[in-house]
Amino acid sequence: MSQRLALVIAAALTAFVLVIVGGLSVYMSGATSQTAGALPAGDASVTPSAAPAALDPTVEALLREREAAYQAALAEANARLEAANAQIASANQQLASATQARATSNAPGSVSLAAAPSAGAAISEQQAIAVAQRYYGGQVVAVERETEHGLPVYDVKFSDRSAVYVDATTGQVVYARIATGEDSEHRFDDRRHDEHDD
Predict the structure, then answer these.
(1) pLDDT tier at 93 (50, 70, 90 boundaries)?
(2) Arch. (CATH architecture) of 121-198
């Protein structure tokens, strides 16, 4: 039974392929006969698109006018781009000179974002202290480099037993434990941790 089914399927596929091939050959022969009928009988070497059609003089004038307007708009846009690039280059030079002046004017004890970070960190301990003091204020008594929940942080401790945790790679405050009269904890910015383990 399965051999008979395989024979029927093979015959059907063969018939289908023959119909497709026959249709393509009829289509191709019809297309070539239509092209041959369009050519003049006396000269077989003439191509159908050898000579462009002549345009009306008013249309040609309109095309030239539009082309001129396009070229003028293109030239104006290029001039604006060159002016904008010159402004960007000037601004970059001013920024570079201001950055260089700022880097040379920093005192050795001052904290700057250009200070060299400790090994494996994007910000230094001094930068973490500066971030924590801007966030909370107060007198810093200790700074420890820790890993909390897989995140490298600086634990900046203050004299009133408050602590601010600063991400060692981005410099953002990720957790703050602020001491109150009852010594309770308040979270200000806990986007990365659900809980904090001391």
Answers:
(1) confident
(2) Roll (3.10)
